[in-house]
Amino acid sequence: MCGIVGYIGARNTLAVLIKGLESLEYRGYDSAGVSFIQNGNLNVIKKKGKVKELYKAIDEQGYDLSLKGKNSISAGIGHTRWATHGAPSDENSHPHLSMGGKICVVHNGIIENYVELRKFLKKKGYEFSSDTDTEVAAQLIEYYYKKFDCKDFEGAVQRALQDIVGSYALCILCVDYPDKIICAKKDNPIVIGLGQNENFIASDIPALIEYTRDVVFMEDNCILIMTKDSIEIKDVHGEVVDYEVSHVDWDTDAAQKGGYAHFMMKEMFEEPKAFEATVAPRIKDDVIWLEHFPCGRDYLSGIDKINIVACGTAYHAGCVGKYLIEKLCRIPVTCTVASEFIYSDPIIDERTLTIVISQSGETLDTRNAMREAQNRGSRTLAIVNVIGSTIAREADYVLYTAAGPEISVASTKAYTTQLACVYLLAIKFSYELGKIDDDRYKQLQSELLQMPEKLTKILSEQNKIQRFASSQFNAESIFFIGRGLDYYLSMEASLKLKEISYIHSEAYAGGELKHGTIALIEDGTLVVSPITQDELCGKMESNIKEVKTRGATVLAIIPERFADKGFSCDEKFVIPDCDELLTPILTALPAQLFAYYMAVNKGCDIDKPRNLAKSVTVE
Ligand code: G6P
Prior knowledge:
binds 6-O-phosphono-alpha-D-glucopyranose, Rossmann fold, Glutamine Phosphoribosylpyrophosphate, subunit 1, domain 1, 6-stranded antiparallel sheet, globular
């Protein structure tokens, strides 16, 4: 989703902005732009399309874009836009300049009352040159700035915010203050990067880590006044508020491709390491330790039910969590898509534990679902990847996945590490509740610790999947079928394929297919079926026969111990054996590789799939 960068300092501002925008490309966008003050004018250069189009446009205007180049500009802001209000076009791209040329704004989020504000400003003589909600913010701030005799930039921003309803990360320049950037934040992230005689702003850490590891995560309903050597954060009443400086220990390599063709491939290859980093430090002396989360018998005796909320891939990790917790702990669990949960009048109270799963920790639907649960008295635990993100800060407790930065829009290592956390939780809860004995507790821990080696083995055999994908990539529609845990895994496998290869796909519970959807199976339809559960493999064999009879080609993903079972499939991909409760951790990787190679064969833009965004901060 939209990305923001801002810079003040001695480096070549335009080069820093362009580099920052490039490092945010992974968020998904359809246009890009920058704004800066030079010779007493606010300049805007913006373009529909990729950052390289913007780079060309800036270059054509004669600006130096090398990082070592000379800087004749102090403050600048930049933006990558993911269209919501108004189609992708040069005019609708950010930054938006006010009519009088005084104020320029980039914005993430949605100004909900923009129609009324636009009417109000039109009456005051303002003309609009875009269809966006954001342009209203630029005009409104200019309106108040002029009302205050063009003397109070900060006051004009504060006053305009009183009129704005919605969500925003706003980054604002004023032509009369060439050495200042003001930002405002509500429900959309802003990270401040602190440097020596320079400061940075970004919507996400990868845009900053090349320059600084000292960051401040801005809080909601605050404004930031930034110069090259100072930052000041104030609340809505203009009172200065304290802030905490966090240190980010990601290395810069983590945010680069490191020789892989795509971030997605690099991130799949990082799964063994990420899984180990998430699990191993939490298992000591045959005991699972979950940091500060007090999940002993006392805590658990205060919980009657568990409620999991998340979106997209994280929701699919939640579905596996529901299955596991119910199976191992016998506590009722609901797992709901966050955007539906909010309006479902959920039955939860202080005896409910809400588990919120999110890679970014910023997904607006997930945040709102967590707040809804908190308002109803529920306890909250977040499983999050991005340290210091909003969901991580607002939950009662947080379990971090140690996946490191995930750049590819299609989530891979984040999913596997989310699974790692739900397994740790389910096993720990089960033991604390006395549902499993010491031996089973130790055995499950040992199984978890063996996963990195098994994931590495799957990666070493990825060429089998590559070969299969190169014979199937013309498929128009693919069905994933599974039962139990394999059904939840099928949901994620199908999403991954759709996201990056644009092939229509559906996930079906093996037994449900015959109740309608089997009508779509015809000669040559591809069906992919993970089959990993002893109790269910006979039933799955019947389902495979049903689709084969109707002409389907079937790929089965099975554990070694089923290799001789003689399923009626056309192809098999064999994964290492493990306790059958843990199989989704291993079946996910072949499914991700399959989606990857199908998309590569089709020539798709793997890391930046069309219409998608890495972090979705609108409802
Ligand atoms: C977007 C991404 C998905 C992701 C979902 C939830 O749709 O494209 O890959 O699963 O958001 O994101 P979160 O950061 O909350 O896990």
